[in-house]
Amino acid sequence: MATPLLAVERLSKSFSGFHALQDVSLEVGEGSIVGLVGPNGCGKSTLFNCVSGFLPFDAGQVRFRGTPVGGMAPHRIARLGLVRTFQNGHATKRMTVLENMLMAAGGQTGELPLQALLRRPAIRMQQTALLGRAREILETLKLTRVANEYAGNLSGGQQKLLALGRAVMCDADLIMLDEPAAGVNPTLVREFVSMVRDLRDRSGKTFLIIEHDMKFISGACDHVFVLSAGRNLSSGTPAQVQRDPRVLEVYLGKRHAAVA
C-alpha cells in the first residue's frame, strides 16, 4: 500500500492528568479530503495542535510523507508542506488582502538584506510571479473584488476564505482547516465546499478538516474520522459515519439513537 501523506499513530496527550487524546490514530491519503468530527471537548483541536507542532505530545508518532515530525517547530513542519489555519483567521488586519497573500509565500529572494541588494532582477521576476499566483488564488476564492481592502474590514466568511488562500499560497501539500464553516452563512458554506474540492481536483491539494457542520463534511469529504472523549470512535465515508449507532449515540443520546 502507498505511504499515507499524513499518519498519526497512537497519539496521546494529557493536561494535568486530563487525557485529551488517548491512542488516537488516523491516516490522510494524498489528494484526499478527510474530515475530523466529534462533540466539543473530544480532542480535535488538541490533535491539530500536536500534528502541526504547536503542542508537544506525550506518546505516539506523527509522520508526514513517512518522516517523523514530532518535536519539530511549527515553521519547520510548514516548510515540509504541512500548514494549518486557525478558527480566528490570524490575518494581519492593517495590511490588504493581497499583501496578506504575498506575505504568506515562503522562500522569497528579497527576504535577506544582501540578496535584496545584489539580486534585484531575480527579486522582480519572483515578485511578478507571486503576484500573479496570489491574484489567481483570490479569483478562485472569489475575493478579487476585496484584494485591496484591509483584511480587518472583511466579513467572518471572507476571513475564513483568506485563511485558506494564505495556506494555498504557502504551496503546502496538506492543508489543515480548523472549522472553516463556523459563523459562515449557509450560501457561502456551499461555495466553500466547492472551492475546497476544486483546489483538490485542480491543484492536487490534500485537506484535513475539523468541522461541526455535517452538510459541509458530507459535501466535501471523502473519508471521516470521529473522536469521542479523546479516543477514536468511528471512521468511514460521511454516509457510513452518519449511520453508525455509536456516532448517533454521542451526538443525539441513547434514546434518540435508538429511534434513528
TrEMBL record:
The protein's name is Neutral amino acid ABC transporter ATP-binding protein
Question: One Pfam match, by short name?
Answer: ABC_tran
MF term (GO), any: ATP binding
CDD domains, per this entry?
A: ABC_Mj1267_LivG_branched
> Cellular component terms, GO, for this chain's entry?
plasma membrane
Q: Which UniProt keywords apply?
A: ATP-binding, Nucleotide-binding, Transport
Q: Which family does it belong to?
A: Belongs to the ABC transporter superfamily.
Source domain of life is Bacteria
Which PANTHER family does the record associate with it?
A: CONSERVED COMPONENT OF ABC TRANSPORTER FOR NATURAL AMINO ACIDS (PTHR45772:SF9), CONSERVED COMPONENT OF ABC TRANSPORTER FOR NATURAL AMINO ACIDS-RELATED (PTHR45772)
Query: What is the originating organism of this protein?
Result: Aquamicrobium defluvii
Q: Where is the ABC transporter domain?
A: 6-254
Q: Which PROSITE patterns match?
A: ABC_TRANSPORTER_1 (PS00211), ABC_TRANSPORTER_2 (PS50893)
